[in-house]
Write a structure and sequence with these properties.
alpha/beta, 44% helix, Rossmann fold, single chain, 8 strands, 264 residues, 10 helices
Length: 264
């Protein structure tokens, strides 16, 4: 299968994955961040900016929001989606942010922590840029056990390349106590973790599989590496496994995330 260009992947992510998944969770994460007009807020691993845009609305008037991501294509899509919203977009690693100490009042990160090569370093950087008493709000998926369609996708992929290689990276940090240990270990206090469930919706199981391949190839590289015939077969297997999650609008299945809050 030919590789999807970074720009095309980012556009698919914003067009398909954001409304199907991430836009449903963004208001909850912004609420957990508890930001107010006039505050300075940083959205780490902002992707195409679904959380960043909501934050910008919350801090008006007088506030300032920065969306940080390592992927320039994602940031390009974020700029387009944000229109004339007053947001600073910054291409940088979460593990080494070109930002001053104690410069922001709150930090959000929606489904980014599990992808950082050095999670402890990223959390240490987040703590560094927060003001004393500043608020951290994270969202991290629970395991695929709590997301039936992705569990079916993982199973179909495992039958072809083995369970180890088939493990889906977005769900790699599903243990609440592992997350707690990371956040506490970085020096945060008042750590609270809550599990929530929302419905994820795609027009069909096939659309979920195709979107995962074209809209998030860096996250699901093993899936993107399957040939057309294998992808067709995987889509059929996921559709069969998720028949009970189909309604009149398409595929609708529960997906659970941990929401984590803490203070510097």
């Amino acid at each position: 299968m030919s590789a999807t260009s970074p720009i095309a992947a980012a556009e698919t992510y914003e067009r398909e994955m954001v409304p199907a998944i991430f836009a449903r969770w963004a208001p909850d994460l912004v609420a957990e961040a508890d930001v107010h007009p006039g505050q300075r807020v940083l959205d780490v691993a902002c992707g195409t900016g679904v959380v960043t845009r909501l934050l910008a609305e919350r801090v008006r008037p007088g506030g300032h929001v920065t969306g940080l991501d390592l992927n320039p294509a994602m940031l390009a899509a974020a700029r387009t989606a944000a229109g004339d919203a007053s947001i600073q977009w910054l291409e940088a690693s979460a593990q080494s942010m070109p930002l001053p100490d104690a410069g922001v009042d709150a930090v959000t990160c929606q489904q980014g922590l599990q992808f950082f090569p050095d999670r402890a370093a990223a959390l240490a950087e987040i703590r560094r840029v927060l003001v004393p008493g500043g608020r951290l709000a994270l969202a991290v998926w629970r395991s695929t056990v709590h997301a039936p369609a992705f569990a079916a996708l993982e199973k179909a992929l495992a039958a072809r390349i083995g369970p180890g290689k088939a493990a889906l990276p977005p769900f790699s940090l599903g243990d609440a106590e592992a997350i707690r240990a990371l956040v506490v270990g970085a020096g945060f206090r008042d750590v609270k973790i809550r599990a929530e469930v929302k419905m994820t919706r795609f027009p069909s199981a096939e659309r979920l599989v195709r979107t995962a391949v074209t809209g998030a190839p860096s996250m699901l590289a093993a899936l993107a590496g399957q040939g057309p015939a294998e992808l067709d077969a995987i889509a059929r297997e996921v559709a069969e496994a998720t028949r009970d999650y189909v309604d009149d609008d398409g595929l609708a299945f529960p997906q659970s995330s941990h929401l984590i809050t803490a203070r510097r």
